[in-house]
Amino acid sequence: ARFAATVHPRLSALTGSPAQVEQAARAYGVDLEGSAPSSPIFLIDPKGRYVTHFNRTITPDALSAGIQDYF
Predict the structure, then answer these.
(1) Per-residue b/e over 41-61, b at no fewer than 16 CB within 10 Å?
(2) Who's near 29: CB < 8 A, 6+ residues apart?
(3) CA dist., res. 61 & res. 65, Å (int)
C-alpha cells in the first residue's frame, strides 16, 4: 500500500488477508490460479472497472508512465 503513494497521491492500493484478496480477485474477474495473489498491479477506474494490469516488478517511474497513458 505504501508503494502506491510513491506513484501518485490519488492512487489507492488494495491489500488484505488471503481470503480478502481472493474475494476481491473474484469480484474483478481475476484468476489467481498458479500465481501469487500479490503479483499483478491492477489499474481500476473510478467506477470499479478493470482497465489493465502491470507486472509487480515494474519500476515506479514505468508504472507512473503506464498509468498516465489512461488519463
Answers:
(1) bebeeeeeeeeeeeeeeeeee
(2) 50
(3) 6
Q: Quote the CA–CA distance of 46 and 11 in Å, as a whole number.
A: 11
Q: Walk along the chain (71 residues) and give the pLDDT tens digit of each residue.
A: 677 777 777 777 777 888 998 888 788 777 777 655 556 788 888 888 888 888 888 898 998 899 888 87
Predicted TM-score (pTM) above 0.85: no
Q: How far is CA 38 from CA 9, 52, 68, in A?
A: 21, 15, 22
Residue with cell 501469487: 36
Grid coordinates representing 63 are 508504472
Cell numbers representing residue 25 in the block: 480477485
